[in-house]
Amino acid sequence: MLETDLTQIDLKNPVITIGNFDGVHVGHRMLLNRMRKLARNSKKPSLVLTFFPPTRVLFSGANFLSSAEEKSILLSRFNPSKVIMIPFNPAYARTAKDQFVRQLEQLNPHAIIVGENFRFGRSRIGTLNDLSVITDHLETCRLRSSGGDIVSSSRIRKLLGLGKIEEANRLLGSPYIAIGKVIKGQKLGRTIGFPTANMDIDVRKALPIGVFAVTARIHGRNYKGMANVGPRPSFPDETPSCEVHLFAFADQIYGKKLEVTFYSHLRNQERFEHLTILKEQLEEDRRRALIALETLSQ
């Protein structure tokens, strides 16, 4: 159950894990799995305390990996008793460390689990020593290494920008998702037999750039497809768009919510001088996407 106010939570002696959890990558999953295991073994409720948008979005203008809705879906897979997603804004960023600690203390935490570099409070002056005062069980986890590097949301954002979705998915621990409503577009694809669903996605969300094999969930069902993501070639300075073509699908879905899962990079974006050349390329993209998605399902 999702909440937004730490002071209104009615849980006694919970096992708490705290973090931005942007993307819920493999490093975050170590914390979440430990929370779930410890809560189960101790017969205590479990609580995920997170923030949206992530601190780096507010302070550095970075894009986020997971919207509030997407993060909620990913966190729910770890079956927490509750999730608190605090709106992170300039006012909340000024919260004193002692105030945050007092709010946690009211829950009488059975255990607190955080990353080894976790900091909190105004100017990030709160440390693990401050948390150790309010619980007898404080655990820290080092974010999982991959290829000798520490897994981070920043690293995953860079991979998405390069179109390296397979490597990003490996660091995430599951395929990357994007959720948005379907809006009307130019309807160019319809004229050549490749109608697309144009997605309205928060401009702050990081998107993989290129053409990808995807699945999309709509009306409670999953459909195979391909997505073209990035600046429109004729308008390179505009916000990147996400256009999804679903195979064997012809329903009218304007205004409906689409959940797209990215699996495989097919090619980089290109500009085509003639529609006939574009259609030929899209037919080849569809062939390759079907092969990629069939391989994944085996």
Q: Can you give me a brief rundown of this structure?
A:
Helix content is 30%, strand content 27%.
How many separate domains make up the residues? 2
Order of strands across the biggest sheet?
A: 1-4-3-2-5-6
> Helix share of residues?
25-40%
Question: Quaternary status of these chains?
Answer: single chain
| Helix/strand order | EEHEHHEHHEHEEEHHEEEEEEH
Give me the CATH superfamily of the largest domain. Answer: HUPs
CATH topology of the largest domain: Rossmann fold
Task: Assign an overall shape.
Answer: elongated
The CATH architecture term of the largest domain is: 3-Layer(aba) Sandwich
Whole-angstrom Rg = 21 Å
Work out the number of β strands.
Answer: 14
Helix-strand makeup class: alpha/beta
Taking the alpha carbons of the first and last residues, their distance comes to 34 Å
The largest sheet, given as strand count, sense and whether it forms a barrel, is:
6 strands, parallel
Task: Provide mean pLDDT, rounded.
Answer: 90
- Percentage of residues in strands: 25-35%
Q: Unreliable stretches, pLDDT < 50, 5 or more residues?
A: none
Quickly name the level 1 CATH class of the largest domain: Alpha Beta
Q: How many DSSP H or I helices?
A: 9
